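Re: weekly structure request thread

Next one in the queue (229 aa):
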Amino acid sequence: MQGTAQTPSQPAATAYTPTDRTVPTRAADRASYDRELVHAILDEGYVCHLGFVRDGAPVVLPTLYARVGERLYVHGSTGSRPLRAAGQADPGLPVCLTVTHVDGLVLARSAFHHSINYRSVVVHGVAHDVTDPEEKRQSLDALVDHVVPGRAADSRPASKKELAATAVIRLDLDEVSAKLRTGGVNDEPEDLTLPHWAGVVPVHKSYGTPIPDPGLALGTELPDYLKAN
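Done, posted below.
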């Protein structure tokens, strides 16, 4: 899903501004604030982890999300605690949202230097409950299309009852950073002659052949947007 928010009055900067919360204390050279890179990492993922504080204790929940321009929409039930809190809190619910992709297993000669190649995004901000009916419908369409582009137009829209049972919160992309690890093994020079295999095992995401529901209406064909996967 590519973000398609309304055209801003001024062109967006090419990078997000670093803050105390978005500058890592370890491996700072792996951090990036490039807007295009952040968007690409977000657009490739399906599940985010949403962190917040409830009753003085930290809570982290996995959930679906979608990017629309410079805004993230997060889906949930109206009974979900963080989504209820986002609607009740003033000015909203402080959250930390993360998305991570694992690209490779880095196997070093020493146990200490084992690692992974990854791409991640961390977003800090205040989440707000989406109450406008049109924005809510658009955000739910974006969530469906984020998982399978083209699917929202090829499915029944949510009914009023379903919309009432569904909550969506929005989080602006303002305080944001990406972090990446690429490349090979970083063994100590004295370990290079050890008789242990070292290298990178690539990790790839793939899709299987779609399995039709047994109750499909007669003549229902596999849509083109699924054939492409």
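The helical segments are 35-44, 81-88, 133-147, 160-164, 224-227. The first strand starts at residue 31 and ends at 32.
Next request, please.
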